[in-house]
Amino acid sequence: MPDSFFGRVFFLLQNYWESYLRGAGNTLLIAIVATFIGVIIGLIVGIIMTIPKELNENPIKTGFLWIVKKILFCYIELFRGTPMMVQAMVIYYGLIQYFNITMSMLGAGFFVVSINTGAYMAETVRGGILSIDKGQTEGAKSIGMSHFQTMLYVIMPQALRNIMPQIGNNLIINIKDTSVLSVISVTELFFATKTVMGVYYTAFEAYFIACIIYLFMTVTCARILRRLEKRMEGSDSYDLATKDTLAHTSGMTGYIEKEDK
Length: 261
Hints:
By secondary structure, the protein is mainly alpha-helical. 77% of the residues lie in helices and 0% in strands. Helix 6 (147-177) runs antiparallel to helix 8 (203-233) and helix 7 (189-200) runs antiparallel to helix 8. The longest helix has 45 residues, at 5-49. Residues 246-256 have low confidence and may be disordered.
């Protein structure tokens, strides 16, 4: 074992790069897949939570919807109000002890992170839906659209652009928070680092390498997501794709000058 700090770092990388690479791969896999599933859960829960109470509605339907909303509210509060580490312990060992269900390590990681992300995304989606002007919903309802059609074709395309930064933020958080899954022996980056550290008891050097890998993954994902957000925003300036000057209620002179050029 070398005496210098960076010598020990390179020594660990040379001998255990496969462990670090496998751990980082599992971390990214869990974070990306669980974020995707969590966003789907959040969309479904957020849409249900924003279903309005209609006048003269069937009381059975109203009562059923009230019960569903209360259950979803409890789900959101439970998973937002408890640490993911505790959730992982309760779910993984609870399923084994009381239901005789043994999940694979990666399966447990996907499940825990997905439902945790879904709870946070449900509130994000609800806020994104409520941020859209009520006139959009009223206009859709006036032409006979149902709540589901209004959400699918009118509200959600606009809300998704508003909540896209939060989706990216949840992905970055999940990349880091997968480290808590080491308590149920999921072989992600933190668990792999603990294994490497235990061989030579080089805690500082081993976790220094893990820190750099985590930073690289989060910064790279953040840059990719920022580019995606810019593409969703569209161009800062554009012209209407029409030759009809009557369609240009403002700036018509400028448009005609562009056509002449």
